[in-house]
Specification:
Shape: globular
Largest sheet: 3 strands, mixed
Distance between the termini: 6 Å
Radius of gyration: 18 Å
Order of helices and strands: EHHEHEEHEEEHEEEHEEEHEHE
Number of domains: 1
CATH architecture: 5-stranded Propeller
Structural class: alpha/beta
Strand order of the largest sheet: 2-1-15
Number of strands: 15
Length: about 280
């Protein structure tokens, strides 16, 4: 089945919240369209990875998530607008799990990795984690859901800002400059190895945006790339580490590696992976 990439349309409503999306959108669209069909949706928000439906890896069936974030500009009314619009566009099966799509990363052998979170399941509720795993597994067509420890104080709790796989290689955002994050990184890697066995790990550069006081900026987060069946689209930030990130990812794949200038858009909280969702569609 051919792969189609979905983006949010730069409507007046969207540009009122994200004015940098006006100039960013045409460049992203052109880069993606060189490899895949691209479909543009009239949506209230640009971070489509978080709220568009999940796709079953075998049947292609779509399942809507219970989207209820508590960060950035997501007021209850705004969140409800997003849920209503997604329901209008995708009248599909309802998964009912309170997890954002940015907190779900596929791995080898049809495994999926997520950060733990109190909003996803409460450890005080017997059997709730097993129920969440069952629902996610049904929606994704997977038999292996792996939970990794979350960072204390993380406002977003999205795993696509920490790790992604390219083939069988695990690419990890290099946070070893901080003792707490270094320890947490290796705790997470141990869980990955426990789930998969031996796995090749490469660290991608991570350059925190020290000018950001909100804690939401994704500038300098290279691991928020998009891998498709035909290419890998990697965020670039006008930093010395840009070429290094392209080189590391290029060594992990034979696909074309395409840099995408995300310097301005990432200040809103995401990069290429957050801004896109891909589905395999019937020809």
């Amino acid at each position: 089945m051919p792969e189609c990439i979905f983006l949010a349309e730069p409507t007046r409503r969207v540009l009122k919240v994200y004015p940098a999306y006006r100039d960013f959108f045409p460049a992203l669209y052109a880069a993606l369209a060189a490899f895949h069909p691209v479909e543009v949706l009239d949506l209230p928000d640009i971070w489509v990875r978080d709220f568009l439906p999940l796709q079953h890896s075998k049947t292609g069936e779509l399942s809507r998530l219970l989207f209820k974030p508590r960060y950035a500009n997501y007021t209850p009314k705004f969140t409800e607008d997003i849920r209503r619009r997604v329901h209008e566009l995708f009248p599909v099966r309802f998964c009912g799990v309170g997890i954002d799509g940015g907190n779900i990363i596929p791995g080898p052998d049809n495994s999926f990795f997520c950060f733990e979170g109190r909003r996803i399941f409460r450890r005080t509720s017997p059997g709730e984690q097993e129920m969440v795993e069952r629902k996610l597994a049904e929606a994704l067509g997977s038999k292996k859901i792996v939970w990794l420890p979350r960072e204390i104080g993380d406002k977003v709790n999205h795993i696509d800002g920490f790790m992604q796989f390219v083939g069988d290689t695990l690419l990890v955002s290099d946070e070893r400059f901080d003792p707490y994050l270094e320890k947490l990184t290796y705790q997470r890697l141990e869980r990955v190895r426990h789930a998969l066995g031996k796995v090749a790990v490469q660290f991608l550069p991570y350059v925190p945006d020290r000018s950001d006081k909100s804690g939401l900026s994704a500038c300098g987060v290279y691991v928020n790339f998009l891998e498709t069946s035909r290419a890998v689209f990697v965020p670039q930030y006008h930093l010395p580490q840009d070429k290094q990130a392209l080189s590391i990812i290029g060594c992990a794949t034979s696909k074309p590696v395409v840099g995408i200038d995300c310097a301005q858009i990432a200040r809103y909280g995401g990069a290429v992976h957050c801004l896109t969702q891909s589905y395999c569609k019937e020809p």
